[in-house]
Amino acid sequence: MLLRLTLALLWSTCLAAQMYGRGGGKYFSTPRDHEYEITGIRVAVGSLGILKSIQVRYGPSWTTMSGCPSSGTPQEFILYPGERIIGISGSYKMYLRSLKLYTDAGRSATFGKDDGNYFFVYPDLFKNMLIGICGQCKLLGITGLCFEWDYPLEFWDMIQQNSTLPEN
Question: Which residues form the Jacalin-type lectin domain (predicted)?
Answer without folding.
Answer: 14-151
